[in-house]
Design brief:
Layout (H helix, E strand, L loop, with lengths): L1 H10 L23 E9 L3 E10 L3 H9 L8 E3 L5 E4 L2 E7 L18 E10 L1
Antiparallel strand pairs: 1-2, 2-6, 3-4, 4-5, 5-6
Length: 126
């Protein structure tokens, strides 16, 4: 009996359960391997917005599906359809088709192999 208890303790509560809860501090970070395009600051009258954009070769539907699962966890709210637009406090996370050019841009554009652009922004009140 002792070996069974030890085995259960070693396997932990995640054994046989759904995926582990996300790390809320990094839940809205860009996906691994995404390439940084822009890192900009915009000053407004009473706030500052720091936004970054990233590009990935993954299809937008794949990126959206990964992040859509986060709605309702870590105080993440937002819309999934028709466009993924998530928020957690003052942080926003949105995806765009790289070919659409409907996202904020800078001097670096996505490569032809990039299919999705991710924009992450944080607003800070002054």
């Amino acid at each position: 009996m002792r070996s069974l208890v030890v085995a259960i303790a070693l396997l932990g509560p995640a054994c046989g359960s759904a995926a582990a809860a996300p790390d809320c501090d990094t839940a809205l970070a860009p996906p691994p391997g995404a390439e940084l395009l822009c890192d900009e600051h915009v000053i407004a009258k009473d706030s500052e917005i720091h936004w970054t954009s990233y590009a990935t070769s993954e299809p937008r539907s794949t990126v959206d599906a990964r992040y859509a699962k986060l709605v309702g966890t870590c105080s993440i709210t937002g819309t999934v359809q028709p466009d993924l637009d998530l928020a957690r406090g003052q942080q926003r996370f949105a995806t765009y088709d790289a070919s659409a050019k409907s996202y904020p841009g800078c001097s670096v554009s996505p490569k032809p192999s990039h299919r999705t652009v991710i924009v992450v922004s944080v607003m800070t009140k002054r």
